[in-house]
Amino acid sequence: MAFRFRGQGATEYLVLLAAVLIIALVSLALLGFFPGMAGDAKISQSAAYWRSEAKPFSILEHSYSGTTLTLVVQLKEATGSFKMTNISVADSTNSSIPAGGKTFNAGETKTVYVYGIATDLVAGDMYEFPVNMTYTSPNNVEMLQYGAKNLVGKMT
Length: 156
Known about the structure:
Layout: H1 8-53, E1 57-65, E2 68-75, E3 82-89, E4 102-104, E5 109-114, E6 126-129, E7 131-136, E8 142-146, E9 151-154
Antiparallel strand pairs: 1-2, 2-5, 3-4, 3-7, 6-9, 7-8
C-alpha cells in the first residue's frame, strides 16, 4: 500500500508550477495591455475637456497630418460675437485666421487650420499640443483662453 501514492507529490508539484506560470503570463499580458489604455484614456480626457469645459471656444474635432493641425472650433457663448485673433498650438502661430481675425457668432462652428507644426511623428503616433487662443470679446476687450489640458490625438 505504501507504493500506491508514489507519484502524487511530483504531480502536485507540476500542477502548482503550471498554475504559477499561467498567473505570471496573465500578469505580463495585462501589464503590456495597460500602456495602450493609458494613451486612449488621455485622448478621451482631452476630448472631454475641449468639448465641454473649455470656454468661450471649444474644439469639437481635430486631426493632425504632416505639419498641419485641423481644428473644428465652436463659440459656446450664447450672446454676442467674438473675434478670434490668434491661435497658438505648440510653437506655431501660423494659422488660417486672417489678419483682422475670424468672427464667431453665438454657437457658430468654423474650421481653423494651424500650419507649420514640426514634429518627427508618423501616422498612428500620438500627438499632444498645448493650445491657446487670443480673442476679442463683444466689449472689444482682448482676452486669452489658455488650454488647461493639452490637445491629444493620433496622427493621421
